[in-house]
Design goal:
One of its GO terms (molecular function) is DNA-binding transcription factor activity. By secondary structure, the chain is mainly alpha-helical. It has nine helices and no strands. It has two domains: 53 residues, Orthogonal Bundle (Arc Repressor Mutant, subunit A); 140 residues, Tetracycline Repressor, domain 2. The N and C termini lie far apart (57 Å).
Length: 205
């Protein structure tokens, strides 16, 4: 028997994750059985457990993939050596969430992940690790702004970064419950952070 290619394994893993997202978004984590996920993916238990030993592992993978995408979007902002503003950072994240949400209800799933992380040590650990990466990037950018005198220095940069992340979490809640879009948050945040010498950008179309 010829060995299974890495591309085939990756495709099967993605197939299973897609099925899990569909089921979880439709019925929630607790109301969805592993068998329902397998049926949606059209996979046998033996094949599926090769990738994810439990439903909890599936949930953790979904959460980690979302935060990985968010981290990539943030890091892309400064690839040219520039320093993104607070509004740019939040917009990069909300735009990523909006894009992923259109594909597989990411905002709704992430809110469920937050609740699940309170009872699952595995999920809480993975979430904290991925969250720390986002927080570290935002803190570094805020420190740069403080060094340039664009943000007050009497508040620790990490505290400001947490507030910016909180805005993203608020966006995800409003995205789920009120169908909020990125343009609304971008315009509001730009008006809030605009200070002397930095006028608000024109409203989004």
């Amino acid at each position: 028997m010829s060995p299974v290619s890495s591309a085939h394994l990756a495709a099967r893993r993605a197939q299973l994750l897609k099925a899990a997202r569909t089921c979880f978004a439709r019925n929630g984590f607790h109301a969805t059985s592993m068998q329902e996920v397998l049926s949606e993916a059209r996979m046998s238990p033996g094949g599926a457990y090769r990738y994810f030993p439990s439903k909890e592992a599936l949930v953790a993978a979904i959460a980690t993939e979302t935060l990985t995408e968010v981290s990539a979007a943030l890091k892309a902002l400064s690839e040219d050596g520039s320093t993104p503003g607070p509004d740019d950072m939040v917009t990069a994240v909300t735009s990523t969430v909006e894009r992923l949400d259109a594909l597989h209800d990411t905002a709704k799933l992430e809110i469920q992940v937050w609740a699940e992380a309170q009872r699952s040590p595995l999920l809480a650990e993975q979430f904290a690790r991925a969250f720390a990466d986002v927080e570290r990037f935002m803190t570094e950018q805020v420190e740069t702004y403080q060094g340039r005198g664009l943000i007050e220095r009497d508040v620790p940069a990490g505290h400001i970064a947490r507030v910016l992340i909180g805005l993203v979490h608020g966006f995800m809640v409003q995205r789920t419950l009120l169908q909020a879009d990125t343009a609304l948050f971008r315009d509001g945040l730009r008006a809030l952070v605009a200070g002397p010498g930095r006028a608000p950008a024109p409203p989004s179309e």
